[in-house]
Design a protein that fits this description.
Elements (H helix, E strand, L loop, with lengths): L1 E4 L4 H12 L4 E5 L6 H9 L7 E5 L5 H10 L4 E4 L6 H6 L1 H21 L4 E7 L22 H20 L2 E7 L1 E3 L17 H7 L8 E4 L11 E2 L1 E3 H16 L5 E5 L5 E2 H12 L5 E4 L14 H7 L7 H19 L1
Parallel strand pairs: 1-2, 1-4, 2-3, 4-5, 5-6, 6-11, 7-10, 8-13
Antiparallel strand pairs: 9-12
The structure holds uridine-5'-diphosphate.
Length: about 325
């Protein structure tokens, strides 16, 4: 049985799908503060290969709640997503982030060690690198995060190194670049409130109600003046977690990998792609730069290719397509 913390959230739920497709049984642990009960229901109804998906509502900040999961199930390994992830909020309210992300993870690791569970795949981030010194960013790039969110994730990576040295706890830390897209069957997708991410925000402006997409800055030192990011499809990303789990099952040592495509797309390019996919002229206004946005972030993903045998398959257009299908469905769920 694999424990997936945060399995009712955007990336976590796609990972649960990938795990059940790969034949694993899963227990989701999620507080549902950010995750969605609708995703849990959808996942529980998918009886892929007759495998079980269970759900426990709980908060990692509550040690007894997470310990009880290990008492109830025989957990073989953990995939850990549960975290707050909004950069601006993390700077305004660091206490909330250190408690939930760092203290919550310490509780999880505590419960793992007590139950002799020694394998964890951890949802880390390109935000641990901070302002890029060079691009594409490989795993040797200095890790000097510039916001609290990135700092919490880097601290956890560091804790995991110490826990390996002292207790033999093996971890794989996956550092995501910009995650995009949705399940190709639109069963689950991106559902944040408030939504801050680029692709859903562009697509939401196609549904009327006076919504205008705000483009944050067109005076960056890039090919067209807008920020360049590496958009990795969420299904490709989910698969990397399954490969990371198998790597640990096969005796792999503690390791860390960038997950991106090695391609950069500007905000304007993503916007054009959304207009193409939706066949609409999307209302847009140019706004000032958003604080803390580096001009360019692109992953070097060679290590994940070489060691995990992972190769992203889906294009930006495929991500925008699946996102649009999901957003159209979500629009009906919400309204
Ligand atoms: N962005 C934008 N309008 C939005 C949301 C994002 O122009 O409504 C820009 C943002 O400034 C950045 C890029 O899109 O340059 C990607 O932002 P996102 O929040 O999706 O991901 P991040 O790079 O912050 O992880």
């Amino acid at each position: 049985m694999i424990l997936v913390t945060g399995g009712a959230g955007y990336i976590g739920s796609h990972n649960v799908l990938a795990l059940i497709e790969a034949g694993y049984e899963v227990v989701i642990f999620d507080s549902l503060e950010i995750g969605h009960v609708e995703f849990v229901e959808t996942l529980k109804n998918i009886q892929a290969k007759g495998k079980v998906v269970d759900f426990i509502k709980g908060d990692l900040q509550n040690l007894s709640q997470i310990k009880s999961v290990f008492e109830k199930y025989k957990i073989d390994a953990v995939v850990h997503f549960a975290a707050y992830s909004q950069v601006a909020e993390s700077v305004k309210n660091p206490q909330k982030y250190y408690y939930n992300n760092v203290y919550g993870t310490l509780n999880l690791l505590n419960a793992m060690l007590e139950n002799d569970v020694k394998r964890i795949v951890f949802s880390s981030t390109a935000a641990t690198y901070g302002e890029p010194v060079y691009v594409p960013i490989d795993e040797k790039h200095p890790q000097t995060p510039i916001n609290t969110y990135g700092k919490t994730k880097l601290m956890i990576e560091s804790i995991m190194d110490d826990y390996d040295n002292a207790y033999g706890l093996k971890s794989v830390r996956l550092r995501y670049f910009n995650v995009a897209g949705a399940d190709s069957q639109s069963r689950i997708g991106e559902w944040h409130d408030p939504e801050t991410h680029l692709i859903p925000n562009i697509l939401k402006s196609t549904f009327g109600q006076g919504r205008v997409f705000q483009m944050f800055g067109d005076d960056y030192d890039t090919k067209d003046g807008t920020c360049v990011r590496d958009y990795i499809n969420v299904e490709d990303l989910a698969l990397a977690h399954v490969l990371a789990l198998k790597y640990l099952e096969n005796g792999g040592e503690t390791n860390y990998f960038n997950l991106g495509t090695q391609n950069g797309n500007s905000v304007k390019e993503v916007f054009s792609c959304c207009e193409k996919v939706t066949g609409q002229n999307i209302p847009v206004e140019i706004c000032p730069r958003r604080q803390g946005d580096p001009a360019v972030l692109i992953a070097d993903n060679n290590k994940a290719q070489d060691v995990l045998n992972w190769m992203p398959q889906k294009s930006l257009e495929e991500s925008v397509c699946s996102s649009y299908n999901w957003e159209s469905k979500l629009e009906k769920i919400i309204n």
